[in-house]
Write a structure and sequence with these properties.
This protein has 304 residues and is an alpha/beta fold. Helices cover 31% and strands 18% of the residues. A hairpin with a 2-residue loop joins strand 7 (192-194) and strand 8 (197-207).
């Protein structure tokens, strides 16, 4: 019997998840979700006035020591559901008035999610789908999403492989994220709007880390030289220390001067298509309650 070796993410760990093995990411055969609800804390063209319909998937291919969602990304909290149930969730979120379906940390479940999107589209579903990723994606996996994903909301965390290894256990992150971004832009080369809402395009997020403004500037330079203003750059100051992660330099928020130097650098390059955050952004208000809201039908949810 041929082993079904998982190659969905750049780890290419080879786990036979269908046979009960667990991948490097922590995921097995089942599709696991921790929360499905409207969310108002994404970038303005994603959240709009009524929120983005976020579906938070459990587990993650990255191992970021500062992850704010660590109880689901590392702990695996969530409920196993079927592809059919995921499709139903899309429609239930639509009924709540959301502007799009926002698939958060989805990579490890790409085949099931792609099947659910196809199922929804066959039933007439027309809201945009957002692939909300840490940027650690294989080009092959992204190509399988062409025609299914309307908006790529991707991180570009590091330009320095040593930092990527230190904080996320992925020394190849810069090269991988760069190749992934090129593929995302190939699929969605321009931002298309309906009023203030994004219908298609690419948003590149970068979280500025304390003491590492120089790497942030290197990321911005790389992204801008590759994509110009064809992508939206989102420069985030919201880094929130999350206990003792083992790295003293990450134990404080980003200083105002650090963040301002990064923003000034982006402006000096000519970046105009960007979002920045104010000094009130360091808050756990960005972190939703991972309590399985919306994962099960309401009748079953009450019993969970």
């Amino acid at each position: 019997m041929t082993k079904a070796a998982c190659r969905l993410c750049p780890r290419a760990c080879g786990a036979d998840r269908a046979a009960g093995e667990v991948g490097f990411c922590g995921a097995g055969a089942s599709l696991r979700v921790a929360r499905a609800a409207p969310h108002l804390w994404e970038e303005p063209p994603i959240s709009g006035e009524r929120g983005s319909g976020t579906v938070f998937f459990s587990h993650c291919p990255l191992k970021c020591v500062y992850c704010q969602n660590r109880n689901i990304s590392g702990g695996g909290f969530g409920i196993d559901i079927s592809t059919e149930r995921l499709c139903d969730i899309f429609f239930e979120l639509r009924e709540k008035g959301v502007h799009n379906i926002n698939l958060v940390s989805p990579t490890q479940y790409t085949p099931q999610i792609a099947a659910a999107i196809r199922m929804a589209k066959e039933k007439g579903f027309s809201l945009p789908f957002v692939w909300n990723t840490g940027g650690y994606e294989s080009v092959e996996t992204l190509r399988a999403l062409e025609g299914l994903v309307d908006i790529y909301l991707t991180d570009f965390k590091y330009a320095d492989g040593a930092l990527a290894a230190r904080y996320s256990g992925a020394a190849d992150y810069p090269a991988v994220a760069s190749a992934a971004l090129r593929e995302m832009v190939r699929q969605q080369p321009k931002c298309v709007y309906d009023g203030d809402l994004l219908l298609r395009g690419v948003i590149v997020r970068h979280l500025v880390l304390p003491t590492h403004a120089s790497d942030s500037k290197a990321v911005i330079k790389q992204v801008y030289e590759a994509c110009g203003d064809n992508v939206i750059l989102s420069l985030m100051s919201q880094y929130t220390p999350c206990g003792d992660c083992g790295f003293p330099e990450l134990s404080r928020p980003v200083g105002a001067a650090e963040y301002e130097s990064v923003v000034d650098f982006a402006l000096s390059l000519g970046v105009t298509n960007a979002f920045i955050q104010d000094g009130e952004s360091v808050s756990e208000s960005f972190i939703p309650e991972f309590d399985t809201t919306g994962v099960l039908p309401e009748a079953k949810q009450a019993l969970y």
